[in-house]
């Protein structure tokens, strides 16, 4: 057990409990050393049957628990800054679920804290970078066979949103994935954003602006559009089509089984992200564990987390004002050169 990377998991809700299961049963080289959740019953349920995992209600107690050498943050976004700063202060490597910190000022404080340390310790949970379809699309775009990318058309649909989901969260929680994916796929920064809202769906909770149509401009002259619809009712669908000068490529259509019967064919549509992106989460966490054991960070960095928050924040302003809104990024610290 001593050689395994002991991980403290903060937050034992949907994602946290799934990551506890993954660390315990799916990935190699790690073990769950501690779990913290103010709702102690959730933490206890998540660690049931896992030998050597302690349960806590406070972040600091979990970080200081015996055997903890790394941290996986899966608490709600507003709790991430405090947890990240506490982990960095202890020199602990971290995998932090998206959004890194929803407000860009808080996200920048994390970047600055890491820059002061002078070494990267944080990886952000933009797991689409580990999805097979996204990786193939990235490889194709990098290869250049289709020419320069001109547009990305993205679809992001959830069956339903969690209670307390706000109109801003369609952008700073849901579309944060497309923001990171677009920056990564294109190798360009998103410089401006416009948000249009159709009539809200009757299936959306009262007052929620759902769906939304989000349009990003990039510093390389490309456009990225995202239909985000978090109470579509029928399935979890994430697609991305790149339109380039000499061709197009689309991912995200091929999930689930196709059942033919009685003269008709019906395709299964996954109902949530835990199914659609199961392989991506497994690869993400395995890759984080492997890199962490070698003292490296190989995935999306705190700078990527900050950039996503800054773009999303401009998006929320665009949603509220109805106007095209420019994105302002702080100067990039030397630690993230080339990132
Ligand atoms: N990568 C993805 O696809 C994906 C999917 C879902 C959620 N997420 C992210 O994961 C995070 C958690 O989301 P969720 O859906 O699991 O939420 P959730 O509400 O199901 O669970 C959050 C848990 O955190 C606990 N908690 C609250 N404050 C805490 C604190 N200060 N310290 C520790 N625990 C605390 C809550 O009691 C709850 O058990 C969010 O950042 C969310 O955006 C990512
Ligand atoms: O927190 C979740 C998660 O990030 C999912 O991947 C996304 O599809 C949802 O819209 C979001 O609410």
From TrEMBL:
A Pfam family annotated for this UniProt entry: GFO_IDH_MocA
Domain Gfo/Idh/MocA-like oxidoreductase N-terminal: 6-121
Keywords: NAD, Oxidoreductase
Enzyme class: oxidoreductase
Its EC number(s): 1.1.1.18
Residues in Gfo/Idh/MocA-like oxidoreductase C-terminal domain copies: 138-323
Lineage top rank: taxon: Bacteria
Catalysis: reaction(s): myo-inositol + NAD(+) = scyllo-inosose + NADH + H(+)
Keyword Ribonucleoprotein: no
Family: Belongs to the Gfo/Idh/MocA family.
General function of this protein: Involved in the oxidation of myo-inositol (MI) to 2-keto-myo-inositol (2KMI or 2-inosose).
Subunit organization: Homotetramer.
Cited PANTHER family: INOSITOL 2-DEHYDROGENASE (PTHR43593:SF1), PTHR43593
Protein name, as recorded: Inositol 2-dehydrogenase
